[in-house]
């Protein structure tokens, strides 16, 4: 099996993000291979700051390693209006089910907050991922130059009550 498609081989913990995670999360966003080439400008100056982490339900997936844990991915859930604002998995950790774990965790958080749906404006290269994890395509977010000069697919996760 290639490392891109191998299952999770180390224990993964999902925990609430804290202010000291901000620099690691910013590096994860800016270093994402999904934002290379024509997409690079969209994240070039992006910053996930301590204030953002404090204001939203941000969670990190941490893998156990010899250094005591490494951030493998994260997401941020905004409650009003309900939206999955950010979801990133480190390039070297993709294909191992971490994104799926983060989505399942987000859905549990949304359910606990009594949300019935969560909107996602997807990055074009992530469109297939959202289909695979059960999001339903609901429309298109149109380009907003210069910040985002391309149309993006909109999805919705429907959150059934338990």
From TrEMBL:
One of the Pfam families matching this protein, by short name: Acetyltransf_10
Molecular function, one GO term: acyltransferase activity, transferring groups other than amino-acyl groups
Keyword field: Transferase
Residues in N-acetyltransferase domain copies: 12-162
InterPro entries: Acetyltransferase_Butenolide, Acyl_CoA_acyltransferase, GNAT_dom
Record-given protein name: Acetyltransferase
Lineage: Bacteria, Bacillati, Actinomycetota, Actinomycetes, Kitasatosporales
């Amino acid at each position: 099996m290639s490392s891109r498609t191998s299952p999770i081989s180390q224990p993964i913990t999902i925990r609430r993000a804290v202010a000291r995670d901000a620099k690691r999360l910013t590096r994860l966003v800016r270093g994402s291979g999904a934002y290379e080439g024509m997409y690079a400008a969209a994240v070039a100056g992006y910053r996930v700051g301590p204030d953002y982490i404090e204001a939203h339900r941000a969670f990190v997936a941490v893998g156990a390693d010899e250094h005591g844990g490494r951030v493998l991915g994260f997401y941020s859930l905004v409650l009003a209006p309900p939206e999955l604002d950010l979801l990133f998995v480190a390039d070297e950790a993709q294909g191992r089910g971490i994104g799926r774990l983060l989505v399942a965790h987000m859905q549990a958080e949304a359910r606990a907050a009594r949300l019935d749906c969560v909107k996602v404006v997807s990055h074009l290269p992530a469109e297939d991922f959202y289909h695979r994890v059960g999001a339903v395509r609901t429309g298109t977010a149109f380009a907003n130059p210069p910040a985002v000069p391309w149309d993006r697919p909109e999805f919705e996760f429907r959150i059934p009550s338990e």
